[in-house]
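SEQUENCE WITH STRUCTURE:
===
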Amino acid sequence: MTQPQITRRGLMAGAATLPAIAATPAFAAGHAAAKPIHRTFRRGSFEVTTLLAGSRLVDEGIQNIFGMNVSPEDFAEASAANFIPADRSQFYFTPTVVRTGSELVLFDTGLNASPMKAALAEAGIAPEDITLVILTHMHGDHIGGMTDDSGALAYPNARYVAGQVEYDHWAGTDNKGFAAKVKPFAEQFTFIGPGESPVSGITSVDAFGHTPGHMAYMVEDGGAGVLLMADTANHYVWSLAYPDWEVRFDIDKAAAAATRKRILDMVAADRIPLIGYHMPFPGVGFVTAEQGDRFRYIPATYQLDL
């Protein structure tokens, strides 16, 4: 039998027929990815599910977002070394659900309620099933799905937890998203600080800098853990790999860089997987420490799957 010949042209033609899953076009806040998808793995007896609640392509002004304090030449060199274009980026929005056995915990609520509900439905979860919502911080892409179109809470049976420092900061501003999505429900929140456990097996971690009260969360059961780093790093190369590179979204850029180094050093040394809200979906990976205060992100493949 004659073996078929594989050519570059044939490969490219085949690739053109594959469905686009995560790489959706640029969209206004609230548009979901073409097909919301999820990924579930286990840490001890806990089930951890990441949800693709949307994605966005940005193809202009990239160095006004990432690497603001480095030269265009250095930015282009680092991009080329990692096989990514220097002039565009794909953003992912990835809330996480943790099923502890007694609680169903949602970390962050996405851009708005509609794509979140679609992503949850793909994972077999109804909004009414959520028993606890934890906000890592109060940027719009994390609190936008707190309420539905009527202004009511999207998770009516849940308790709510957020950082006290974070809430106090935004309460002193005129931020419209905070005023609409969080402040009206302040009495339903429990406010905590670093090192506290809103649920057994889930502990808040100081990750200040991105916002004044930004927190990560360690999820651990049976000696197996995963760190939800939220927005500690916003891009797997231009932020995580180069922690000193300034990111426009970081309110305190020096503190954010120091936090990145501390958090990434910890997960690299302890070989703990992490989940990043804006990492390439499914948002789960590992980190190794490299020379010169740099790090390398290694996406998880099948090693954590159920």
Residues 1-34 have pLDDT under 50 and may be disordered. The longest strand covers residues 215-221. Helices lie at 8-16, 72-81, 113-122, 140-143, 164-171, 176-181, 253-270.
